[in-house]
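Here we describe the complex-level prediction in full. Unlike the single-chain runs in Section 2.1, the two entities below were treated as one system.
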Amino acid sequence: MRKKLGVVIASMLLLGTAAGCGSNDKAGSGAESSASSASQQASPNASDTGGEQSAPADGADSEAFTITVSSWNLADEPLGIVKAYREAFENVYKQKYLNATIKYNNTPGDKYFDLLKAQLASASAADVIQFQPSHLPMFTTAGFLADLSDLSLVSSLEGAMKTEVTYQDKVYAIPFDISTNGVWYNRKLFEDNGVTPPATWDELLAVADKFKGMGITPFAGGFKDAWVSSMTVKTFTMNDYSSPTFEEEVYNGSKKLNGPEMQATFDKLQLFYDRGYFGPDAMSNGWDLQRKAFEDGKAAMIIHGSYIAGLVNSEMQDKGGMETGFFPLPNDDGAPVLSVGSDTLTGVNAKTPNLQRAKDLVAAMHDAEAQTIRDKDAGVFPALKGIDIEYKELGNHDFQRALAETDSLLGGQYVPASVYDVYGKLFTKIMAGKTFDPAWLDEADQAYAQDKSLLPPPGQ
Amino acid sequence: MYAGKKNGLVEWLFVAPALIPFLIFVVWPFVSSLYYSMTRWNGFTSPVFIGFDNFGRLFREASFVAALSNTIVFTLAGLLISNVLSLLLALALNRAGRSKAVLRTVFYLPGVVSFVTMAVVWSSIYHYYGPINEILIRLGLESWTREWLGNFDTVMAALIIIMVWSGVGFGVIVFLAGLGSIPADLYEAADLDGAGAFAKFRYVTFPLLMSSVTIVTFLGLTTSLKIFDLPFLMTNGGPGDASTTLAMLIYKQAFSYSNYGYASAGGIVLFVLVGFISLLQIKATRGREVQL
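The structure predicted for the assembly as a whole is:
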């Protein structure tokens, strides 16, 4: 299962570099012009989509109707990036549906997914829904998602990105982004102190010790938020999987979640706690204060996903911006493994009365130009081929390079949500001062046994 | 006989507008959840009947035992601290004269603050770099500083303080109403009998306040046994399971993990617990109520 995503990433990198030639660091016009050309290649013109209800390619549909979209990340945010993105894809959509009204059902964070499941079960979900890869098998087996295999966008998917949205040979969603978690660092802090990104576990500890000795928290912690705890553990686990097929082996019963692999992960987290790498306020902070500690230079590094570089740079604009760097969390032998996947999938509610209109909206939401507006300042990396963005942040360049050069796998594909919750919970026990006991992992193993039936069998 | 049947039909017709919604929205979901509690069901596909397996699993799981224990601690704290404090404050306010109305409002205010706002404010107070630790440092007690919500020894106490702070006002209002309804001539008679302040409280005030005690205790018990929003917003049940409650466990199993069958079993256990404890409490307090 482990594979280099090199083909996808390298092509993104090359196209991005080519598009960036001649543009300045402000990533304005260069990105826009490249997006325009990409738009011509990959723009999901509504007439490209299949389906018997499709409106004539040469004529717009003037019927007035309302179509709903539910998401956790389409609400306004202070930087106005999402609003601009919404306006951009609404314009694309309204070229085909002149009198369409798009209504957004936004619910923040973790609660969104709980609500979405309840809405789908009660046939009251929006026409277009956004969700995460872990939900796809359950939603498809329950018949909640419409088959999107006939969307022209599907031809822009390949490799892991296509695998992630395919179930029994049909495509049920379009991935918005490609993401992975790793270590982001404060570039200035590293450079000012002559620190270079570590490549091995021992080097990482040495870097952390150096910053700790200087009175700077090595890693910003924000474990008051459950998702940050789970995500941090997941970032560590990938390096300790004993083989690329570890999750399939757990599924088939030849490996256990309370075995040496997960014990190694929690031993490392225990070491981080014992050495005080996450700082004294790691359990008081949520994601917002964790980020602030990193932005303020109180913490040198932060373990998170692709969004960090763009987000912190935008938030620090009034102080001249903030340059970051990125490296994969090192392992013992200097050959780390990244868990790569999409954070956001867009699908169509199978029960929608507006099937074709919903499919066309999915296409518009992945319009290259609109997506570029969303991605370029927020550090989101498009999953579709042909959308080329010149990122202004050096950290994002590091990120693209790491994606292209590092071994990766689709982590969590065969792990139920309850197990990651248990991992997060166990991690908070360590952070609250309890010493890790391998017997704790029995709870993860039990949760796995109980919820295994919610997973798709490997290979489907 | 015919007229009797006809009257019976008319009676049912009068009851129907209330009975039908009650059957649909209360009885039917409850009966359904009884069935689902004996199934393995992800909420989407067909449930599979598994008998009482879910109930057996509940009592074997450490997280359920922890949640049950935490729920009981919240309930006892609500019962003992909140009620006693409410009564003491009500007694003090009852003698406060002109400032009574203002103070009553002040004590009731926390009860109308939204939990989300409250969570933000209290998170700041309990933060490692928050005012509590700041004061301790200034007092030379640096070794006492800690992450109040991220520590096994303090998280429950920290949450109970918020629960009491937000709930005490309601008890004060109910007790004040009860105190206001006690006739003054009973106290005058007690004075003539030479009763002191404590004797008046024991033999006059408290017996006549028992109906208020029943109401405050009943509402406090049922709210505490179902407590969800406070630990959910403040700690998400952590660290570990240190502040997880039964209602949170049910919510997570149902909506986060899609184990609706297992969650229904948890719901049934919670229902039985709330019902049993509430009945005990009503039996205990109702028997002591005094009617004038």
